[in-house]
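Archive maintenance. Older records in this collection stored only the sequence; we are now back-filling the structure field for every entry so that each record is complete. The fields below show one back-filled record exactly as it appears after the update. Entries are processed alphabetically, and histidine kinase is next in the queue.

ARCHIVE ENTRY
Title: histidine kinase
Organism field: Niallia oryzisoli
Length field: 253
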Amino acid sequence: FKRIQLESRSKDELYEMGETFNHMMDLLEANFQKQDQFVANASHELRTPLTIIESYASLMKRRGFEEPEIFHESIEAIHSEAVRMKDMVEQLLLLAKHNEEWDIQFETIDLEEHVRQTVQTFENAYQREICFHVQQEGITVLSDPQKLKQLTYIILDNAKKYSEDVITVEVGIQDGNPFIQIADRGVGIPKEDLNKVFDRFYRVDKARSRQMGGTGLGLSLAKELTDAMNSRLSIDSLEGVGTTVRIELPHAK
Ligand code: ADP
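Back-filled structure field:
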């Protein structure tokens, strides 16, 4: 905000003070509204898995001891909803952090080696085939290794959830900007939803996301992480064809 000299105020200056004050009030109100909305959404989203857990626990109490299928089905549902809830709470705690609290530890990183390791960990964990391309060797970037891995993992996880075919990961450099690109040949995202997928809790298909263990928070967290690491995140997608996500990172000269 602009500082206003309090001595010798002219009419124009008083008018300007009024304008600044109104502007501040608008900003405050918008912020409060955003916060209220967020709390309402978070409570609603957390209540859904809790309701499922509650109803399966009561079904198990009533019939689970005599009917083994009911027992197994209930235990499965309770476990997967509890995992989803835990993920959601962890992501919410991360999103509640302010930029300066992210504690980014910038280091010079060998991009190819770093991404190769992340891809390998992912492949081992999920038995999904990933095709790894290196457009240019020897690229170094300035980033936080642990958080870059977390970011790449979120994008890979989405590619896994919303496609069944091979996932392609590429590292390279374009117009002097190093990048990691993750592409899938999955369900894709309709054009009208593309600019909303970074919003907290936004999901194109709620049922599908839930079935896949999604929380609707992955991409908003990815966006916050990229911003905190002076990087850029972009997404390109065609419904029914696939999705390509690109992370552009600062070059370590
Ligand atoms: P979720 O936990 O639901 O996956 P995200 O914030 O990670 O939440 O993503 C938001 C939404 O964007 C998803 O619910 C999904 O509809 C869409 N989306 C994200 N990545 C992809 C992808 N690779 N392919 C298709 N849809 C995607």
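Update note: Helices lie at 11-64, 68-95, 111-126, 145-161, 206-211, 218-228. The beta strands are 107-110, 130-134, 140-143, 167-174, 177-184, 232-238, 242-248.
Entry marked complete.
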